Structure formats: structure tokens, C-alpha cells
Amino acid sequence: MICSRCKRRPAVYFRRVSGEKLCKECFIKSVEQTVFRTLRLYKLSRNEKFLLAVSGGKDSTALLTILPRIERKYSSEIIAVTIIEGHPESFRENALKYIKLLCKKMNIIHKVVTFKEHYGYTLSELWERALNRNIRLMPCTICGVLRRKMINEIAKEENATRIVTGHNLDDEAQTIIMNVLRGDDIRLLRLGAEALGLIKYEGFVPRIKPLRYVPEREVALYCYFKKLPLPENICPFVEYSMRKSIREYLYKLEKKNPSIKYNIVKCFDRLSMKMVSYLKKKSLSPCIKCGYPTSRKICRACEILEKLS
Q1: Predicted structure pTM score
Q2: So what's the architecture of 41-308 in CATH?
Q3: 308: number of CA atoms within 13 Å, CB side?
């Protein structure tokens, strides 16, 4: 089986969506080309300052190897930040050693910040408080809300012009479905408009998602071919997440319809483009406690911390 692109080397990967058979070299190139095409959507300027959220997982590690080329092209700067939430068994800390080595090799500044330093509690402590007080908050909700706020605050401290996250195609499709099931129409529409760079809110550093159209399995294979370490541990709280059930459901659907995740995200993007004028009317205001932009009087992060303090 010969590669569909170069017509010379043996193929090692079959892309079911397009029917392409790709050799190792052409596969790596195709993933990087998708990243560069996605970045063009954001109309990057020269002298940008990117804050890359690096968890140590495959997605952010892949970006850590690809982004330096963007940095050179746009005369920009990259700062990597790793947040230690405080999971049981030092889940995040296991990846720190390699992240530090990779950042040093690429001459990228790397910051490590913990929930304990920033909020006064680890994620495990907050989750334990929620259980003890019979407060209906899942660990993934606590983690997601507090991580997003923390990354935004660090980006503002560093004068970053863009926050870069490693969300891949699977992540985006799952998040869209999750917001539909929760009936959260405003967050759902805002997710798409922000992801496409169509709308910005004062107080939020704009986010970009270079892997948004790259499937999870292709990110994993990219890391394998580039000899980047794949994480051995999974989040110990994954069993509590709605995302796990949606991920498994989409995998089943994908077996019969290989393009289903692309279809979900692309259709959603088209809807988001049409709803930009509506979203601009839904302005955010500063949280009365911390000043973080929110559609409520008190932002979700302050609400969670208030309940659990």
C-alpha cells in the first residue's frame, strides 16, 4: 500500500474520513498543515505573546513542538504554564520532568503554578469539602472552572496576547454535545464564536485552539512518530465526568460514520458565525468579588470557592 500523497513511500495510516493512505512523513506533515491552516483563522499579528497551557498530555506536548515555528514566523514569544491541581497520587506532577526538559531544549520559559498557591486548596481538598457538605459539584466542574480562570489571570499577568490550549477535534465535539445536554445555549454559542476568533470579551485574553480540527487518535500517532512521550496516567476523576460517557458514545457512532466529529464541529462553526451579532448583545460584566468577566453578578469560580471555603 503506497502513500496517496508522495506516491513513493509505504503507507502506515489510513484516514477513513478522506480515504487517504499516508506514510509516516506525509502524515506528520498533514497534521502540521492542519494546525497552520487553523492558526490562520485567528489572523495572528507580529510580536504576539502566546501563553501555552501545558498539562503534559499528548495534545499540549504536540503543540509544544509545533508552535516554535509559529513563534519564528511571527517574531513572537511563547511562555508555557503547567497548573498542578492537586489530584490524588500526584497525577500532574509525573509529567513535569519531561515538560521542563522540552521547554529548556526549545528555549521556552516554563512556569508551574498550583491550585494550593492560587486558591488555598488543592482540587482533592475542594472535592472532599463538596462531599462532606453534600454540595452537588463534580470534581471536573470544580477543576475546569478554576483552571480556566487561573490561566486567564496568569495570561494577564504575563501580558500575553493569546492563550493557546490543546483541545483537539474530539474534545470540541464532546464539549458541544455536553453544552446541548445541559441546555446552556449562551455558553454553547460563545464557545464556537470564541474558538473561531469571531468575538472577544473585555477581561478575557483571547484563546486559540490550533488542534481543533485534528482528531485525538492523530495527535497520539503524531506524538508516537515524533518520539514524544505519551502519558501513562489518566485523570483519577475521569469516572465522574459526563465527558467520558459522551466520548464513548461518539466512538461508537464514528465506527459507522467516520466523519461524525468533523460534522458536529463544522456544523456548529457555521451556526456560530451566524450568531455573532446576537452574542455581542449578550455583554459580560465584572464579577462583584474578583472582577472576572461573567454573565452573572458573581462568577462561577467565586461561587464554587464560596461554597467550599
Answers
A1: 0.89
A2: 3-Layer(aba) Sandwich (3.40)
A3: 27
